[in-house]
Amino acid sequence: MKKQFQDNLKFSIKYNKFGFLQNKIKEKNKIKCEYFASSNKNSFVYIEKKYFTSYDNCNIDFVHKKKDVKLPDLSGFIKLQKKHRKNNILINKKYNLNYLENVRDNTKLIQKYNYCINMNNEKKKKSDCSSNIRELIKSNINSYIMLSRLKIPEGIHLLFYSALYGYFLTYNVDNLLINNEININEINEILKNIGLFLFGSINSRIVGCIINDLCDRNFDRHVERTKNRPLANQTISVKKALVYFAIHGSLALLTLCQYNYQTIGVGLFSTFFIMTYPLLKRITYYAQVYLSFTFNLGFLITSSINLNIFNNMIPLSISFLPLCLLTIIYDTIYAHQDKKDDLKLNLKSLAIKWDKNTLKYSKFLAFNMLYLFYLTGYLFNIHYSYYILSTFNILYLYYNINQCSLNDKEKCMKFFKKSKNILLLIALSAFIAKSCELWEKKKNNKIKDKEMQNEIKKVDL
């Protein structure tokens, strides 16, 4: 690889916590030489420029003046050559810079020597080829992880917990009982469905991220938080992103095909919202409202497994709304991180619309969530524990809103990450309420069985 060396660069020697040498601009007449230690981490050594000269017996020439200097990736041991003498004597002493003891004491020693590559061409070609392949694979994996947001799994959690809530809320606990005993086959079916929900959430999230990045790539490169996204900085091509989109879209569709036609229809309907959401922020301040429907359609998809959507439209709509309100709250606070950049780019969001009133409006929406949860419990005739748990969930949401500061990007991100915990608690509320309902039914069935047995005994007597 080529590096441009320049005269009169100001560099000095500094150490990091691993004992490697790092740069810090300080003194004149020093030149930077970069090498790769055996740990594959970039390390730096700074050698006074007067020591750089041309050696005929070396594979690589170090040039004193401003020119391109070829430096291959070095791994393992390297040889050091003593500073220029008349006869250019090679020193056979080897140093492994990754394991140099007393680095501070050896600094002067290192400064007195120049690098000399002492590898034959075949070994060099093999090491270069293998290192290039490794770097290519590593860079592709890193770019894919960045594109799919796998390092920020909160989006997957939010989709998954929303789907779980819909499934538990609409589940009929009578399916779990056979002759007042737990149906193991039904439990296996529930666990299989939960696994499919997770798999579907992962693929749906990745599809949504790819569509969003494809639509916003020209804006993302101008926003501080998003400028390093692969499509924005062009580390992934549009064609490759479309291939990833096709793969994950197919996997999401395959997940849907495990269920009935109603569930498949609701899932396919949700793709319209996923495809069109990124365009909304260009034309309206209420893109977060649109996103709230998009992000929680998993609730309706999983509900359709247990219920007929059209026959239960009113209770499902009411139970769907608090999830939408929660999404509006956390995504609006999240959007405050990019508010200044969005204004420059003429993009719109509720963060810009509400501005300083965001926390006040968020508390108002949280209050509305509470009575919608109560109404949901009434319409679905859920165990009273659901009301108690829902109250605590909203109080926890209030607490997190109070802890948030709109001018602090870290606190906005922290609130967004905590939102997944709130949604998990909402899903657990439905699960616990259904578990209590199951326990009570089992208990009542036992009482009825005893009464029946007593009546039979009386008849026999």
Automatic annotation (TrEMBL):
Tagged with keyword Transmembrane: yes
GO molecular function, one term: 4-hydroxybenzoate polyprenyltransferase activity
GO cellular component term of the entry, any: mitochondrial inner membrane
Cell compartments where the protein resides: Membrane
Main localization (coarse): membrane
EC number: 2.5.1.39
CDD domains, per database record: PT_UbiA_COQ2
Record protein name field: Para-hydroxybenzoate--polyprenyltransferase, putative
Organism per entry: Plasmodium relictum
